[in-house]
Amino acid sequence: MLNRKLRMGMIGGGPGAFIGAVHRIAAFMDGQIELVCGAFSSDPEKSKQAGEQLNLPLTRVYGSYKEMIRAEKALPPDQQMEFVSIVTPNHVHFEPAKLALENGFHVVLDKPMTFDLKEAQLLKEIAAKSGLYFCLTHTYTGFPMVKEARQQVLSGKFGKIRKVYVEYPQGWLSSFIEADNNKQASWRTDPKQSGIAGAMGDIGTHAFNLAEYVSGLQVTKLCADINIVVDGRKLDDDGAVLLKFDNGASGVLMATQIATGEENNVKIRVYGEKGSLEWKQDDCNSLLVKWPDKPMEIFRAGAAYTSSFSRHNTRIPPGHPEGYLEAFANHYRNFALTVKTSLNGGKPTPEMLDFPGTEDGVRGMNFVEKVIASGKSDAKWIEFDK
């Protein structure tokens, strides 16, 4: 029986990185995972510095992801990493993920999945062929009350879903801060590192994933208005998208990084023929459920009346806030429990398997491609790939 921590390697997340530290906190939170090696920067010296700060033996700190995967593969099975967490800019997602899967390592990958749709489709095929597990860290579907929202919609209590509104407003790119060598802004606004989309790739994909996850529906076509508001910027920093879903429902998605003064108040509303729900990150432990003929209900995280999916992803009693880091950790925890259960010859539960995967990644990149195409087109409505 496997009764120990899974061994994780990390690619990226070195000096000056933001999301790498978040991934490590999330991975370590539940005691299921330990970091054993890393290639933390494309600069070998910076990678070494990061490894020293993380108290790793220098023999397990590498100068490149290729060196790391090759060296870890050569170690005895009881010593080598078992999965890799990839926290690099978008243009360094596909190759390390592909190499890891081809060498027998499970993968956790920061979103969006790849640089473009073609890479995403190929990576999905590689992952399926490998038989290994793949997790894409769309953070917001890790919140307990987002999982509760999905289960309530899937139960049919709201009837047929008619309308979905989802929004992700940020204000941190309201000025041209990439000119000041802001590392986070610089790569996200650089087409060579980010791809064809800016805001829509960075946060629009989160909103899109949240809309499909909670509604249980899939977008079939969209119509987008895409803008570059800040002078000198090369990629979109603002946009709005009309959505059509596979059951005939319509939706509206807003993602902007120039909403001055806004932080990260992700919000979703889903309207059915019998009732509706609303969730927002600013009050993430609450789920509002609204009816036409009785008072509004407020569901709270951790309560005994919530679904098994919600309770499975809640660590503490009601009233003790669990937020972004815990939601992030839920994906790592479920991924780790799935891998460990499988290694023990067991069958992971549906609650364990409830983390984003390659299908979410491909749909996210499809969304990016179609949003930008629609934004540039006079025809506007663009069909999703079948």
UniProtKB/TrEMBL annotation:
<protein>
    <submittedName>
        <fullName>Gfo/Idh/MocA family oxidoreductase</fullName>
    </submittedName>
</protein>
<dbReference type="InterPro" id="IPR051317">
    <property type="entry name" value="Gfo/Idh/MocA_oxidoreduct"/>
</dbReference>
<feature type="domain" description="GFO/IDH/MocA-like oxidoreductase">
    <location>
        <begin position="147"/>
        <end position="278"/>
    </location>
</feature>
<dbReference type="Pfam" id="PF22725">
    <property type="entry name" value="GFO_IDH_MocA_C3"/>
</dbReference>
<dbReference type="InterPro" id="IPR000683">
    <property type="entry name" value="Gfo/Idh/MocA-like_OxRdtase_N"/>
</dbReference>
<feature type="domain" description="Gfo/Idh/MocA-like oxidoreductase N-terminal">
    <location>
        <begin position="7"/>
        <end position="134"/>
    </location>
</feature>
<dbReference type="InterPro" id="IPR036291">
    <property type="entry name" value="NAD(P)-bd_dom_sf"/>
</dbReference>
<dbReference type="Pfam" id="PF01408">
    <property type="entry name" value="GFO_IDH_MocA"/>
</dbReference>
<dbReference type="InterPro" id="IPR055170">
    <property type="entry name" value="GFO_IDH_MocA-like_dom"/>
</dbReference>
